[in-house]
């Protein structure tokens, strides 16, 4: 597996046995995409601004502003951030916290976010038993309490389903029906319907809507206006797009992102 030198770290975080270490970065100063790699430690990718997509086996995760995606240690993954993203990486020593053994997007409270940012200013080899060590352990206790958000897309290695996913990712505005996709993929409609449900756990309509939701969050977090995102996803009107977004996340796009910008972390580099 490829070894990645992470920006913001003077040393490989896997080489320290501290319960948790962190670093922050602005994507504009580094590569926006990190190829497939893995870590010994578990990793939380926290988006302070902008968004990140993280691909692991059989799923694509989106990290909206003020959320973090948790990736267990030893799990291969790749990351792609919007150009305006400001991120924070948190690495957790195996066994230091009762965090999930699967990927999950967590909504970060202002307190947990501030604790991560404070840890990002500390050296990787902070003294055991000292203030930073105690803060790291309290942070991990709080982190396991953070609520999960369903902002991921199940994907598949099956060649037919993967071809469909690649085509819709390249052109999310494509509104072809399941009958038309079955014809393109040289499958019967019932066969394709069953295959998608088996491989993703969702119907074709729900799966495509979830893809649209992830694309919308990524583009809106990157600064694109609602009307442009609506058009790029093939919606007949902005109202129809907003209705889909609100039904999925409980808020309109404007209110969703406004709610995530109400509490700017004191350690956010933009405020320095």
Notes on the structure:
This protein is of the alpha+beta class and 272 residues long. The chain folds into two domains: 13-149, Regulatory protein AraC (Jelly Rolls); 157-258, Arc Repressor Mutant, subunit A (Orthogonal Bundle). The chain is built from nine helices and eleven strands. It is globular. It has helices at residues 110-120, 131-143, 159-170, 178-184, 189-200, 204-221, 226-232, 238-249, 253-260; strands at 20-26, 33-37, 42-49, 52-56, 59-63, 67-71, 77-81, 86-92, 104-107, 148-149, 152-154.
How do the helices and strands line up, and which of them pair or pack?
Blueprint lengths: L19 E7 L6 E5 L4 E8 L2 E5 L2 E5 L3 E5 L5 E5 L4 E7 L11 E4 L2 H11 L10 H13 L4 E2 L2 E3 L4 H12 L7 H7 L4 H12 L3 H18 L4 H7 L5 H12 L3 H8 L12
Antiparallel strand pairs: 1-8, 2-7, 3-6, 3-8, 4-5, 4-7, 5-11, 6-9, 9-10
Helix pairs in contact: 1-2, 4-5, 7-8
Q: Termini distance? A: 37 Å
Stretches where pLDDT falls below 50 for ≥5 residues? 264-272
Name of the CATH architecture of the largest domain: Sandwich
Helix content: 25-40%
CATH class of the largest domain: Mainly Beta
What about the largest sheet? 6 strands, antiparallel
| Shape label | globular
Order of SSEs, N→C?
EEEEEEEEEHHEEHHHHHHH
Gyration radius (Cα, Å) is 20 Å
Care to count the β-strands? Answer: 11
């Amino acid at each position: 597996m490829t070894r990645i030198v992470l920006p913001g770290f003077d040393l490989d975080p896997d080489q320290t046995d501290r319960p948790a270490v962190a670093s922050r970065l602005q994507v504009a100063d580094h590569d926006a995409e990190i190829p497939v790699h893995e870590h010994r430690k578990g990793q939380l990718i926290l988006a302070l601004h902008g968004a990140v997509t993280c691909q692991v086996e059989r799923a694509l995760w989106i990290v909206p502003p003020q959320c973090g995606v948790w990736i267990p240690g030893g799990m291969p993954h790749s990351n792609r951030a919007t150009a305006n993203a400001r991120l924070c990486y948190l690495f957790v020593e195996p066994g230091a916290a009762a965090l999930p053994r699967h990927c999950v997007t967590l909504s970060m409270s202002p307190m947990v976010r501030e604790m991560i940012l404070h840890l990002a200013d500390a050296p990787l080899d902070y003294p055991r038993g000292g203030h930073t060590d105690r803060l790291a352990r309290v942070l991990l206790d709080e982190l396991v309490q953070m609520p999960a958000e369903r902002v991921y897309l199940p994907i598949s290695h099956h060649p037919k389903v993967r071809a469909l996913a690649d085509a819709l990712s390249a052109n999310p505005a494509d509104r072809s029906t399941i009958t038309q996709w079955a014809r393109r993929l040289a499958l019967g409609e019932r066969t394709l319907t069953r295959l998608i449900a088996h491989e993703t756990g969702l119907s074709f309509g729900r799966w495509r809507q979830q893809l649209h939701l992830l694309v919308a969050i990524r583009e809106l977090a990157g600064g694109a206006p609602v009307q442009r995102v609506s058009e790029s996803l093939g919606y007949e009107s902005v109202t129809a797009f907003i209705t889909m977004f609100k039904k999925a996340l409980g808020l309109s796009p404007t209110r969703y992102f406004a709610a995530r910008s109400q509490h700017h972390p004191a350690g956010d580099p933009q405020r320095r």
